[in-house]
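Any chance you could type out a protein's amino acid sequence plus the matching backbone structure tokens because I've never seen that pairing?

——
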Amino acid sequence: MQITATEAKNRFGYYLSQAEREPVHVMKNDRVAVVLVSAARFAELEALEKQKSMAQRKREFNEEYKDWIAAQNELVETHGVFGENFRPW
């Protein structure tokens, strides 16, 4: 749902109840200024924000296993990839 800031001001209670069902986008100067969402949806969004991003998890993995990764890379550089000359046909 999309409304103007004036509508939000004049019918705030109504749009609060609407926000329980769906996000309410409040427009000001032809752009979305705020979005009203339910408290439950806001809690979901906060929980998602607290989860680690894939980039963070990748950095942690690389840091924890850097010695093993280096050893595997050295094996590939020295001996190549096992089976790379095999053809399935």
Notes: The first helix runs from residue 5 to 10. The CA atoms of residues 62 and 69 lie 8 Å apart.
